[in-house]
Amino acid sequence: IDFVLVYEDESKHASEKKGSQRRREFFEGSLMNLGVELEAAQSVMDEKLVYVKVHVPFEVLCTYAEVLHIKLPIQPNDLAQQSSTYNCFTRHFYPSEDVIAKEPDFFTAPFRKDQLKCFYVKDREQFFTPAVRSRMAYYILSRAPYDVKGSMKKFGISKLLDGGVYKAAYPLHDSRFNVKSKEPGCPNERFLLYNEWAHPKSFYKMQPLDLIRKYFGEKIGIYFAWLGFYTVMLTLAAAVGLGCFIYGYTTRESSTWSKEVCDPQIGGEIIMCPQCDQICPYWRLNTTCESSKEKEKVPHTACGKCMRVSCGISTVLFWVLLIIASVVGVIVYRLAMFITFSAKLRSDLKYSKELEPFKEYVTPQMATSITSSIISFIIIMILNNVYEKVAIWITDFELPRTKTEYENSLTLKMFLFQFVNYYSSCFYIAFFKGKVVGYPGQPVYWFGAFRNEECDPGGCLTELTTQLSIIMTGKAVWNNIQEVLLPWVKNLIFRHCTQVGSEKVIPRWEQDYQLQPIGKLGLFYEYLEMVIQFGFVTLFVASFPLAPLLALFNNLCEIRVDAWKFTTQSRRVVPEKAQDIGAWQPILQGVAILAVATNAAIIAFTSDMIPRLVYYWAFSVRPYSDGSEHTMTGFINSSLSIFYIDHFNNESRPTVDTPYWFNNITTCR
Fold first, then answer.
1. Residue 45 · residue 154 · CB < 8 Å
2. How confident is the model at residue 44, as a pLDDT?
3. How many other β-carbons are positioned within 10 Å of the β-carbon of residue 491?
4. Phi first, then psi: what are they for 397, rounded to 5°?
5. Distance (Å, whole) CA 369 – CA 462
6. Cα distance between residue 452 and residue 461, in whole Å
7. pLDDT tens sequence across 189-207
8. What residue intervals traverse the membrane (predicted)?
9. Residue 535: its H or E element
10. Which residues, including other chains, have CB under 8 Å from residue 497's CB and lie 6 or more apart?
11. Interatomic CA distance for residues 168 and 631, integer angstroms
């Protein structure tokens, strides 16, 4: 059985239109005219359902193998394979060859029907693998007509599925995933893939890529090969990032800097100017002691097509502007809530015994940062879900000529949108926040009402790290809920609603119908998820060196989760031909190039790495100071300017009660 079609019997529904039956009969007649054999079977579980089993005979397969230029074996490869030290090491992590036999290697050539005798045909039934047979069956189904009106033909199983003529169309799994089939000749490849690839016990094993390609096709095989390679690269990046993180916490310069902030005799004696007008009080620098310790040291027709594409570009630009508007909305929220937190948070913590232990950790800056990051994440996920439907509609409206053009167009739209959606708030924190704030007595205002926000004394990198952590973690949790929990719950409910007596034997085609269908876009969302993650790992790694480590843990789970989903929860994927990862490759290259610029800018303009180095090597010794050894002692004092309090104007002068320790001080920093 190369393919299965499922439909509801109209005789069971009097209200069903007869047009569907007419189109279905025309379609099935077209298939039989092409030499395809069909056999209908009534459902065991639901009497309204009918399953049409599709079989493509050997002669028809030969015809379409030549049309599709499918490469098939001509003779075994007799060239000896060279072993390497790497192979000697990694072979211990591959599944045992006693369990998954090594695929025989052949010389191949594009098939020609008139040269059949030149090909390696030991068994006509085994010459074409099940994946290749399913691919050719789907090719036939996609081109068989189902209606003719005058000179215009309507064809393709996709439109019949969209129109409800058929409820499903899918190739069959070869066995159950958790029980080995006892049928003679059954390869049990699904069972092997689950046990040696998708099962949690195999988390340390290398992926059986040859078997994955053989069972699911080249496109999925390439995806998992790329995902495995990307995960290996993350291992190296995680090691470097972890080293930078540890080094930033243990270096003498960093520890000296944080000690000065936390020291009651240094940071406790430095009086800082109010951070908002009137209602914000003066404050001591050591109140930000905990956040300062997060500091890290890190180096169709021309006219018609033009109209459709222009409409698509305009729609994309509108949604990009909508994202920017949402970012501005979050910024206004931050400005307003910072004033609120500054006025009330300290007093609430002071008079609440339950919250007293958190007094040192919960600052107005930290509270504003965390709440705004959570709001940003919620907005991101809502806009993603809405724009996804808009992007598909725009791409359908453009009428791309081929499936490759369709995927490339949709890829560009979705990535552009998600790039702005996910990264805009991070770019704002990294490069714009705290850069234009004015000075005490004459601050800069947004919309004439909201005073522009400043960075925490610990630096904007602390807030950027918070933003990245919340978005990365939230995105990973949400994606796993969508990929794991929802399909499992749907399958569980479907099985519960359609359960039958134990005496009935449920055939393979009905068991597979209970599984979740693979969407039209296939691996699109898997690639998109990984490319967005790649952006988080590379674009802002200078501020968050642990991002590769988090991504590594996520990907180790992602490989097994995707494997579990494909082998246990989803119908078998229609195999597709592929040579590479397509439009995602130039996108990854573009992100990598941009990452060099963003990290250089973060180090140069956002972090205080360069000022600290200049102070350590130049200003901490003579002639600029009395010391003879290079040190970070005194850096805090040298980095803060002095403001005379009597220079405040009436709009900015604090009106709240001054703290008990103020003691008529005349300057603030």
1. no
2. 85
3. 16
4. -65, -30
5. 9
6. 18
7. 999 999 999 998 888 888 9
8. 223-249, 316-341, 361-383, 530-553, 587-606
9. helix 524-539
10. none
11. 71
